[in-house]
Amino acid sequence: MTLLVVGSLAFDSVETPFGKRDKVLGGSANFFSVSASLLTKVNLVGVVGEDFPEEQLTYLKSRNVDVAGVDRVAGKTFHWSGKYNFDLNEAHTLDTQLNVFADFKPVLPAGFRKPDHLFLANIDPELQYAVLDQVERPKLVALDTMNYWISGKREALLKVLKRVDLLFVNDAEARQLSGEHNVVKAGAAIRKMGPRTVIIKRGEYGALMLEQGHAFYAPAYPLEDVFDPTGAGDTFAGGVMGSLDRWGGFNPATARQAMVVGGVMASFVVEDFSFDRIRKISLDDVQARYGELRRFTDFKDLPTQE
C-alpha cells in the first residue's frame, strides 16, 4: 500500500500557558508524515526554503518517508506564529509568513502518481484540485481544510469536495461550511457536497465520524499534561490514514480502529512542543495506549428488563 501527502513544511513559533518555543518544526504535511510513517510508508510533497534544516529531511527519511517530492528553493520557509490560552482547543494566530510557500505549485514525481491513499493537507483548494489531476484515482482521497479557505475560496473548495471521499474538519469549520449549528446536521449537509464520510475533530473531546447509516465517536485519550496542541489535527489525520494504509481499506470496522489510532497519535504529540514527544515513541507505545483507551471505554449492555 502507498500513502501520499501534499501540504506544508514550516517553522512554528508557539506560546502556551506552559511554555514558549521559537521557530520549531511544524507544518501540516510534516506533522502528518511523522505520525503516519510510524505505521506505513509515506510519500511527501511540499516546499522548503534554504533555512530548513537538512537533518529534518534526513530524519523523515529514517522514518520511511520518501522526500523526493520536497523542493528546496531560494528564500525562507513558511513560518507561523500563534498563542494558546488555557482553552487549548483554540489557536490565536499572531503572524503568518508564507515565504516560499506563497509560490508553491505541487508537481508530483512520476513515482508518486499511483497512491492507494491520498491526503490533501490544509492548503489552497485550487492546489488540492491540481494534485487530483496528477494522480490515478486512489482507493481513498482525504482532505483537510480551514476557515480561511471556507470563507475566502468557497467555490474552489466546493469544487474539490466533489472529488473527495473523506473530509477532516473541526467542529467550528463544520458549522461554517454547512451553515448548521448542530455538528450531526453539519456532517449530513457536508456529505451532500461530495465526501461520503466526514470526520469532525473536537480537540480534547475526541472526534466524530459520520457517513450514511454509520456513525462513530472516538473519545480523546485522557491526559494529565498537555503542553502544545499545535499539529494535533494533522497528527490525528496521519494516524487515521496510516492505519488505513497499513491494516486495510476503508470500511466501518477499519475506520473505527483508525479513528482510535489517530486519537492515540494526537495524544502523544500534545505532550510536548513540536515533535519532541512523538519522535520518541514506538509502535509498541501506540498499541499499549490503544489498548488502554479500549479498556477505558468498554461497557456492557444493560440487563434485560423482565
Supply database-style keywords:
single chain, 306 residues, alpha/beta, UDP-N-acetylmuramoyl-L-alanine:D-glutamate ligase, nine-stranded mixed beta sheet, four-stranded mixed beta sheet, 13 strands, 34% helix
Q: What report would you give on this structure?
A:
By secondary structure, the chain is an alpha/beta fold. The chain has one domain (3-296): UDP-N-acetylmuramoyl-L-alanine:D-glutamate ligase (3-Layer(aba) Sandwich), CATH 3.40.1190.20. Helices cover 34% and strands 24% of the residues. It has ten helices and 13 strands. A hairpin with a 2-residue loop joins strand 2 (10-16) and strand 3 (19-26). It is globular, with a radius of gyration of 18 Å. The termini are far apart. 47% of the residues are buried.
Break the fold down into its secondary structure elements and pairings.
Elements: E1 3-6, E2 10-16, E3 19-26, H1 28-36, E4 42-48, H2 54-62, E5 65-72, E6 79-83, E7 92-97, E8 117-120, H3 125-132, E9 140-144, H4 147-152, H5 154-161, E10 166-170, H6 171-178, H7 183-191, E11 197-201, E12 207-211, E13 214-218, H8 232-247, H9 252-269, H10 283-296
Parallel strand pairs: 1-4, 1-8, 2-6, 4-5, 8-9, 9-10, 10-11
Antiparallel strand pairs: 2-3, 6-7, 11-12, 12-13
